[in-house]
Amino acid sequence: MTVKERISQLAAQLTGSTAVMTQTSAFQSVPLAPPDAILNLNTLYKADTYPKKINVGVGAYRDEDGKPWVLPVVKKAECAIVEDASLDHEYLPIDGLRTFTDASAKLILGKNSPAVLENRFGGIQTISGSGAVRLGADFLNRWRKAPVYISNPTWGNHHDIFRDAGLDVHTYPYWNPEVRGLALKGMLDTIKGAPKGSIFVLHPCAHNPTGVDPTPDEWKLIAEAIRAGAHFPFFDCAYQGFASGDLDKDAAAVRYFVEEGFELLVAQSYSKNIGLYGERTGCLTIVTKSADLVPNVRSQMCKLQRASISNPPAFGARIVSMILNDEQLFAEWTQQLKIMANRIIHMRTVLFALLTELGTPGTWNHIVDQIGMFTFTGLNAAQVKVLRDTYHIYLTDNGRISMAGLNTHNIRTFAEAVDFVVRNV
Ligand SMILES: Cc1ncc(COP(=O)(O)O)c(C=O)c1O
Questions:
Q1: d(CA 360, CA 343)
Q2: Pick from 42, 125, 267, 321: CA 20 to 30 A from residue 397's CA?
Q3: SS3 113
Q4: pLDDT grade for 40, boundaries at 50, 70 and 90
Q5: Mean pLDDT of 125-133
């Protein structure tokens, strides 16, 4: 090849590659993902300039004035951490702060749980409840792959988390619109009909989004069906203590399964019950048949954790550890937890009374019967749209409302708007 030919060959290659660079991008085929339904609602709410707007979309506690509440016990713990000269910013171990994970496991299982007494439990600190669900899903996908069943409906993220972890996702009926309560028969039939050894994701209390929990007798039937199918229970506990105001009562379903001899996973979140939303503090607790299995499971979870977040953040875990391990702080926390739970329970009573006073068509008992942060109102998407567009009231399309968004200043406006859409839309 002559020099001239070589030059023109290089020039052709160059123009060719320039053309490639200008015509296509590595990201050309990436479509715009739809916005997250709940977080998008929050954005719309923030952009709304109407002074009396109401946000019952986001699942975060608000006080009587509609403001986020930093629990006084959290402030106390934060001050103590800041003043503690012995603390530094070194990495935590891969499985997190052991004083936190041990206390967290005991909080959900109970100090006298057979699993605790026999030392066949363990905890891994995670990026809040979402991270705990994801780590559990990744672990099951790698070491106990099976179809996973989530409730219909459920917290929207369950679908994505279990799918992205590589599991085959199915649903079991949970909500019966006719009785505005639990679809127990459909749930049991699905558990019985699922392939042997399937994974069942259960909300132990304050089911999101329905606010409907099985009774203790219904839990017995659920446990029996799960045992009969040799299925694996995976509890997602985002609201311990927040539902009833009683930490033990809200943990009863998990404790019952442990007493019945099940091995299980529990994802725990401290977003709602200690109000550490943005600090991303959670734990994945495991219960095994025997103590010798715990180190193996823990080591494999650590391997997965190392490859995803390396090690978890320290601040939130230090706060929770301090509260759970100090008798005085723990007592203060349980009082403050009751303040939140009771305010929400009170809002249920007031809303029910207002709709009754207005004579709003339909039955509304489910508002007081449901538990926890959410009420599944039964309002349809068209009614929700009018509430948003005309009344500046923000809730998810499935009619779910966060009771924490209501307070004595806005609840009548809310009830009157609901009354209007029920009658006219
Ligand atoms: C059922 C359920 N699981 C898990 C979570 C996770 O919450 P976080 O990651 O904020 O702790 C939530 C929060 O809304 C939830 O409702």
A1: 24
A2: 267
A3: coil
A4: confident
A5: 98
In a domain, 84, yes or no: no
- Least confident among 8-17, 61-70, 118-127, 179-188: 8-17
The answer on 127 and 236 residing in a single domain is yes
Give the domain CATH number at 59: 3.90.1150.10
pLDDT tens track for 281-312: 999 999 999 999 999 999 999 999 999 999 99
160 with 277, same domain: the answer is yes
Ligand 1: distance of its center to the CA of 150 in Å? Answer: 14
What is the distance in angstroms between the CA of the first residue and the CA of the last residue of the chain? 80
Pocket of ligand 1 (CB under 6 A): 59, 128-130, 133, 155, 203, 208, 236, 238, 269, 271, 277, 282
pLDDT for 6: 72
11 domain residue, yes or no: no
Please check whether residue 354 lies inside any domain of the structure: yes
- The protein residue whose alpha carbon is closest to atom 12 in ligand 1 is 238
In a domain, 309, yes or no: yes
Q: Ligand 1 mean position to 59 CA, how many Å?
A: 9
Per-residue model confidence as pLDDT tens digits over 81-95 = 999 999 999 999 999
The kind and range of the H/E element at 148 are strand 148-152
- Closest residue by CA, ligand 1 atom 14: 59
Any catalytic annotation for residue 63?
no
pLDDT score of 13 more than 70: no
The tokens for 127 are: 């990026």
Backbone angle region of 398, left / alpha / beta, with phi > 0 → left and psi within -120 to 50 → alpha: alpha
Last-in-domain residue among 290, 325, 360: 325
CATH code (residue 215): 3.40.640.10
Q: Of these residues, 95, 250, 272, 333, which one is catalytic?
A: 272
Q: Are residues 97 and 196 in the same domain?
A: yes
Q: Write the CA distances from 370 to 157, 269, 311, 365, 401, integer angstroms.
A: 22, 21, 37, 9, 12
